[in-house]
Amino acid sequence: MNEAVKKIREFMKEQGVNYLLVNSTNKYLVEYTPLEENSRYFLTGFSGSAGDVLVTPDAIYLFVDGRYHIQADQEVDHDIVTVVKLQTGQFFLDELVKKIPSDETLGVFSKKNSQKRVEYLQDKGLQLKYFDTDPIEQAVCYDGSNVVSVDGVPVEEKVKGIDYGGAVLITNLEEVSYLFNLRDFSQNYSSKIQGKAVIIGGRARLLEDVDDFAECYNGNIYVDKSSINAYDFALIGDKAKILNDSPIKLMKSVKTNDEIAHYIEAFKRTDMAVKAIRNYIENNDNISEYDIAEQLEKEFKRFGAKSLSFKSIVAKDKNSALAHYSKCSKDEVLEDGSLVLIDCGAYYEQGLATDITRVFVKGEPSELQKRVYTTVLKMFLNAYNSNFKTGYEIDALARDIYSKNEIEGFEFNHGLGHGIGINVHEYPPNLSKNDMAKVEIKDNMCFTVEPGLYNENHFGVRLENSCYMKDGKITSFVHMNYEKKLIDFSILTEQEKEWLKEFEVL
Fold this sequence. Notes:
Number of helices: 15
Strand content: 15-25%
Strand order of the largest sheet: 4-3-2-1-5-6
Oligomer: single chain
Number of domains: 3
Structural class: alpha/beta
Largest sheet: 6 strands, mixed
Distance between the termini: 51 Å
Number of strands: 27
């Protein structure tokens, strides 16, 4: 039993609970929590960005979606942890509830769960017991020493029309960073500042924490239950009024023309960095995943990146079947015929996250590599050239293309795309089977289109372009490249070949 498991078991015994939810996030409910403050990681060894744990009297269950099925199996100790592999359409909390007897109480860390999440659990009939502190949480020093201002609409303009007759509390870090045109490059894989904000009477101010404000302010406080943690919500108490959505969320998701212009420049630089890596792979022997990742970061810095927008994925052969593979091993050396998947991005001066995925091959590809690559390309081209207005419809089209070109053993086990902005994963928009993907994608919303096919016994291929909606049409930020030697042109339709002309084929 590792030390974290021992601490959790002792804590549960002291608190008198037999069931406990352990999260991967922090008090700001961010997706990409550094491992040093990720309690789920200490408990299980699983390093993926998403997935929470239920501790029961006789088991530890790790719930992961399709992106992480293989990775979770590889990283956890199966004598201690049982991996629950969620299928498309399955919701983590629904599966969690099934494992808790109706007469038992579930312990939750109030600062690490949204009010929306805890209410969902209550609606399912669970009794909850809240804890303010997490016994295995690690102290993380944050100094905010590299906070910078960026160009943007002044905060006074953004908030002048926001008047609910009370205070509006903003607890989402991306929204706070956007609102004040501030970015912080002192943390890995983030440009978000650490803080919360309140909007009152057409003015906005930053808050370090909610405690003092909640105690002193006597009017209504409007909150978004999906982004406020249960601890802060309890502090507000009867003063809380519920917003269907934060007024900043939609404002932030529809980029200004200046932001689009900044993004076009950022993706040009990102594309140049990835092209340089392609040449590095072509012209060097005995290079490993680690070597490529290290060189990639150098290339990003050469083209002006402030930091990476997430940890680069460099995955060779079977490792590429792990959608979010994270090791970048020195032992995984490319050989002739090795396929390598690179998913990467960076932050530049304006603090907007870039995100693209490319697949290359060392030497000559196999027929199977070409077939899978070309099928994924077909999925991308048809989705990209669709005239649908919702991500739900675009995702369905890509899946339909695959169903007509199915390759035995290969699965498309994640959503087609996600919104991007200050964070590499934002909403809206969304391209998936989820209900949230039914929201219309508006002009100047930015998102990825990234179909992928994976087989753990062979390899995985994912092709990702970041795009925006322009005049009702999906538009790529730059004419990003595809690998000619991996394309089997015989299985492309004439229409698909015509569409491909919009992009660069190397």
